[in-house]
Amino acid sequence: MLRTECSARSVGSLFVEQAQRKVPGVDKAALDRIAEVSRRLAAARMPAFYLERRYGEVEARRALADARFVLEWVEGHMSGPHPG
Length: 84
Description:
The chain is mostly helical. The chain has one domain. The protein is 65% helix and 0% strand. The chain is built from 3 helices and no strands. It has helices at 11-22, 28-49, 57-77. Helix 1 (11-22) runs antiparallel to helix 2 (28-49) and helix 2 crosses helix 3. The longest helix is centred in the middle third of the chain and has 22 residues, at 28-49. The chain is elongated. The model is unreliable at 1-8 (pLDDT under 50).
C-alpha cells in the first residue's frame, strides 16, 4: 500500500500565505512554482521513505533543482528582519 496521503494544508500553501503577507509585490508565478514543488516533493517523500517507490537520477536532479529554486527565492526575498 502506498502511503501518499497529504494533509489538507500543505507546507507549500502555508508558505505562500506567509510570503503574500510579508513580501510586498510578491511574484505570483514564483509562489505558484514553490507550492507545486512542495506538493510534488511531499507526495514523493513517503513512498521513498518506505521503499515503496524508487527514484532515479533524473527525478533526483529535478528535486535538487527545485529545492535550490525555493532556497534561492527565500534567501532573496525573505532574509533578514521582517515586520509583524
